[in-house]
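Milestone 3.1: sequence recovery, worked example.
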């Protein structure tokens, strides 16, 4: 039984670290103003408060649930940006209103 204790404690530490990481992640939603390689300009949902995000090569970008490039996004697409440690963008999930 005591041999399992270190494994149990390690598992708890790993799970706790994952919870802290997830808690550090922040998301916000809005609309695409413009997008190009390495850069996303977006506004809030009402089209105000325009701001820019630098998008790194390791950022996961999706459009309508499928893998995409940041340059695939168009003005007016709905976007959800997830930032992690230090405000670095880790994911961009976009949806396009003209889907059929």
């Amino acid at each position: 039984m005591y041999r399992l204790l270190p494994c149990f404690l390690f598992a708890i530490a790993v799970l706790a670290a994952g919870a802290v990481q997830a808690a550090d992640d922040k998301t916000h939603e809005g609309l695409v103003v413009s997008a190009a390689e390495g850069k996303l300009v977006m506004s809030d949902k009402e089209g105000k408060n325009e701001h820019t995000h630098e998008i790194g090569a390791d950022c996961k970008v999706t459009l309508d649930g499928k893998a995409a490039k940041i340059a695939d996004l168009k003005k007016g697409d709905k976007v959800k940006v997830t930032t992690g440690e230090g405000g670095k963008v880790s994911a961009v999930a976009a949806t396009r209103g003209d889907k059929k």
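Residues 17-22 have pLDDT under 50 and may be disordered. The CA atoms of residues 58 and 90 lie 8 Å apart.
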